[in-house]
Write a structure and sequence with these properties.
alpha/beta, 8-stranded mixed beta sheet, two-stranded antiparallel ribbon, 12 strands, globular, binds S-adenosylmethionine
């Protein structure tokens, strides 16, 4: 177990806290062709851990907010489930998943390999009105890979500097991208993709005991702005989502930002919560919230610690102020 120490504001008041190191994303196979804002590659090890302890093994994974789909793809490639139901409301993202399911991954791979990437060529390409879903899919990948942060929402623009000042070229790796598309053919027939409302599709599977859910909604609960800049579809009825989770026969795992409003909704339904370490795109160490019915399996997981740790300062008999500090829930 790798841990590092977090410096406290008042180190003299406490033993130092062991804070887990975020997952090294380079150790997770990158199977998605997207570079997705809020993508969950870093969550893959935790997801695997959740899946492998289930008996009987679930047959279906429902991902109601699929985005770049790394969790569903991992579940399929690693045979953690037989089938993945991927749901995404964004029509541009949907075009990519639909094309993969319809057998057009190779066509997209060829377009990627033969496209001469310049800013002008991208502008020219994305101005066209696509005649087919696969053409729209290619436009989407082009934008996703050359726009700042992979963001397709309104107001997004081209990568200015990118990695090492390479601008729009910095996330365009034709060979790697084409291979990812070709590899998707191995699992395409096990993907049930829907361009629909995720909560509605959850309802469809709610009584299915062999379905489990990985739920990663836009982080907009309590009017938070973070998720609004990133996605075209960000207005979600979060209360309704929590209500739906309550009605599911199968297990679910939900990720959210560590916001008071979210914790209130989870607590009021008796769900459990844990914090998990992650690194954001700016390499800043952060924590996200994991919500589920029973998360006791996460207590032994190195990259997790309890969200509700408070510091209680106890006074000693000799009236020394604040000598001992206790962690409590
Ligand atoms: C946090 S992102 C998911 C990221 C994904 N887990 C990944 O690893 O790439 C949330 C996604 O939900 C989509 N979305 C928002 N509202 C939705 C809805 N009602 N139904 C389905 N998808 C929705 C957004 O377009 C966005 O792609």
């Amino acid at each position: 177990m790798t841990t590092h120490k977090q410096a406290l504001l008042y180190p003299e008041l406490s033993e130092q806290l062991e804070v887990p190191k975020p997952v090294n994303v380079a150790s997770v196979p990158q199977r998605s062709p997207f570079r997705y804002p809020g993508g969950k590659t870093w969550f893959v090890p935790t997801f695997r851990r959740w899946m492998v302890r289930m008996h009987p093994k679930p047959r279906i994974l429902v991902e109601p907010f699929a985005g770049g789909g790394i969790i569903s793809l991992t579940a399929l490639f690693e045979n953690l489930v037989q089938k993945a139901v991927m749901v995404e409301l964004d029509d541009e993202i949907a075009a990519v998943w639909e094309s993969v399911v319809n057998g057009d991954a190779e066509w997209i791979a060829n377009r990627v390999l033969t496209f001469e990437l310049t800013k002008e060529a991208v502008i020219q390409e994305i101005k066209k009105t696509p005649k087919t879903r696969k053409e729209k899919a290619f436009q989407t990948i082009l934008k996703n890979r050359t726009f700042h942060g992979g963001i397709l929402a309104e107001g997004s623009g081209f990568l200015k500097y990118g990695e090492n000042g390479k601008g729009i070229h910095s996330r365009w790796y034709p060979g790697t991208l084409a291979k990812r598309f070709l590899n998707l053919n191995y699992v395409a027939n096990r993907i049930d993709f829907r361009c629909d409302d995720g909560i509605k599709v959850m309802q469809e599977f709610a009584t299915n005991k062999s379905a489990v859910y990985f739920i990663d909604p836009p982080y907009t609960a309590g009017g938070k702005k973070a998720g609004k800049r990133l996605y075209k579809h960000c207005d979600l009825n979060h209360e309704r989502l929590f209500e739906m989770c309550e009605s599911l026969k199968g297990d679910f795992l939900m990720t959210y930002d560590n916001a008071e409003e979210v914790k209130r909704m989870a607590r009021s339904r008796g769900f459990q919560m844990r914090l998990i370490a992650m690194t954001n795109t700016h390499h800043a160490a952060m924590e996200e919230l994991v919500i589920g019915k029973d998360l006791s399996w996460m207590d032994t997981f190195p990259a997790v610690h309890d969200p509700e740790v408070r510091y209680v300062i106890r006074e000693t008999k000799k009236k020394h102020p604040a000598k001992a500090v206790q962690r409590s829930r």
